Amino acid sequence: MRCKCKNGLMERSVKPEHVEDLGGLVVKVLNAVVVQRCSACGDEMIGIPDVQGLTRAAAMARAQIPERLTGKEVRFIRRALDMKQTDFAAAMDLSAEHVSRWENDHNGVGGASEKLVRHNVCALLSDGACEYDPKAIASMVFVPFPEGGIAPIEMVRVRTTHRTNEEDDTMWSEAA
Predict the structure, then answer these.
(1) Strand 153-159 vs strand 26-38: parallel, antiparallel, or unpaired?
(2) Cα–Cα distance measured from residue 118 to residue 59, given in angstroms and rounded to the nearest whole number
(3) Which among 62, 121, 132, 165 has the fewest CB atoms less than 10 Å away?
């Protein structure tokens, strides 16, 4: 494929690591991001495969990390569920005002409500291929969100036999 500069060809490679802010949660994608670079002008295009799947897997992974959720992360999780604020509030048995305050870092949710939200998020996002341990969330002891933020969640794309669609036999998983 030719570059828009019309002087070079786009060379394709896979980056071993790529850090991406998904809009409230930072992930480090391992061995999956495709880079196309022009041989003449050096212009680059980056492609992340299955961004929606990555977003959902990252939201589920974040729900299982014991640091308190920030407002940006709650908004990210809600968007990963593809829910409006009112729908998310109803599904989590919270008022829309409470969710709004939480997302804007005005008023956090208590421990019991945060555990319920984490359980619900994992249950709604779990597709049989990505598993979670409800007991781990039930016994989770929350720690304050660190001053510099949490480290990017490392994600890797893996082949799976759980999918029924033969065209898409991959999924995102937290790197071990």
Answers:
(1) parallel
(2) 10
(3) 165
Complete domains list, the chain, with CATH: 51-174 (1.10.260)
CA nearest 106: which of 71, 146, 68? 71
Please tell me the predicted confidence (pLDDT) of residue 164. Answer: 53
In the block, which residue shows the tokens 């968007």?
Answer: 79
Q: How many CB atoms lie within 10 A of CB 103?
A: 21
Indicate the angle between helix axes 71-80 and 111-125, nearest 10 degrees: 30
Per residue in 94-138, pLDDT (tens digit) is: 889 989 999 998 876 788 888 988 999 999 988 765 678 999 999
Name the pTM for this structure. Answer: 0.86
Q: What is the secondary structure of the chain as a DSSP string?
A: -B-TTSSSBEEEEEEEEEEEE-SS-EEEEEEEEEEEEETTT--EEEE-TTHHHHHHHHHHHHHTS-BPPPHHHHHHHHHHTT--HHHHHHHHT--HHHHHHHHTTSSPPPHHHHHHHHHHHHHHH--SSS---HHHHHT---BPPPTT-PPPEEEEEEE-S--S-TT--EEEEE--
